Structure formats: structure tokens, C-alpha cells
Amino acid sequence: MSDRMGTFTETTASVTVSVEPFPILEESRPDEGVFVFAYSVRIENNSSETIQLVERHWLIESAGEQTGEVSGPGVVGLQPTLSPGEHFEYTSSTVIKDPVGSMRGSYIFKRKSGGFFTAQIPRFKLLYPSCLN
After folding, report:
1. What is the pLDDT of residues 29-81, one digit of tens each?
2. 54 Cβ contact list (under 8 Å, min separation 6)
3. pLDDT band, very low/low/confident/very high, at 1 (cuts 50, 70, 90)
4. Which range of residues forms the domain containing residue 93?
5. Within 13 Å of residue 68, how many CA atoms lie on the same side as its CB?
6. How far apart are alpha carbons 13 and 96 in whole angstroms?
7. Could you give the percent of the chain with pLDDT greater than 90?
8. Does residue 120 form part of some domain?
9. Half-sphere exposure of 118 (CA within 13 A, CB side)
10. Stretch 121-127: mean pLDDT, rounded?
11. First and final CA of the chain: distance in angstroms?
């Protein structure tokens, strides 16, 4: 049985964000309320102009309530620039206190021609395998 939970995708302003979450079993400690998840993100520039990811904003929920908020410049220490048709991929992680949670958010991009816009990160579920039985 795969620990993958599927891919969640959303397109905003010609930018497609796809997220695939999965539990990190070897780092989780369910008996202590520590559930570790990684998520792989693919950002595709389907627009006709060059854009740069300048900021991220995440909301993290666990047990049905917001437990975290993360914002700041770029992703994984980078502010990637994407020409039309290019994509950028990265993997990051989060820790929640319950076997069921979710994440959602947004990226702020700067257009090469000037101006900024926001692309949504789809809400995706974080489900620890013991909850799937």
C-alpha cells in the first residue's frame, strides 16, 4: 500500500501549483502526538511572461484548527524565476499534532513587466496511515 495521498492541483493567473503530500513514518511519533509530513510542490508558469516567486504564505491545520502560519521570502531559500513554459519543483515538510490535518496557502509572484500577483496553493490533506484503516 502506498503512503501517497494523491496530487492536489490549482491554477491561478496561468500558474499551476500541484502538491503531493506523504507521511514520513520514520520521523513521526504517534504516541507523542508528532506526525511528520513531507510535500512535493511543482509550480508551472503557463503564462506568456517571465515571473519570479518572491513570497510564500502557508496556513497549517491539525485536528480541525489552525495550528501554524508560515510566511516569508521565496521557498526553500530560493526565489526562482520561471520563463513561460518552465516549472520549478521542491520538497518541504511540516509537523502536526494530530493524525489528520491540512495545508493551504499562496505564493506572490512578480511579473518581469512589472506588478505582482497571487497564485493559490490548493488545500491538501495530511492523513497519517493509521487513520486510513
Report:
1. 999 999 999 999 999 999 999 999 999 999 999 988 888 999 999 999 999 99
2. 73, 74, 79, 108, 109, 110, 116
3. very low
4. 8-115
5. 18
6. 31
7. 88
8. no
9. 8
10. 96
11. 11
pTM assigned to the model? 0.91
Strands (E), the chain: 8-12, 15-23, 35-45, 51-62, 65-73, 81-82, 87-96, 100-111, 116-127
Instruction: Give the SS3 label for residue 118.
Output: strand
Handedness of CA 110, 116, 120, 126 (dihedral sign): positive
In a domain, 126, yes or no: no
43: cell is 509550480
For the chain, how many structural domains are there in total?
Answer: 1
What is the residue whose three cell numbers read 501517497?
A: 4
Alpha helices, DSSP H, located in 14-117: none
Q: What is the pLDDT of residue 3?
A: 56
We report the CATH number of the domain holding residue 62 as 2.60.40.1470
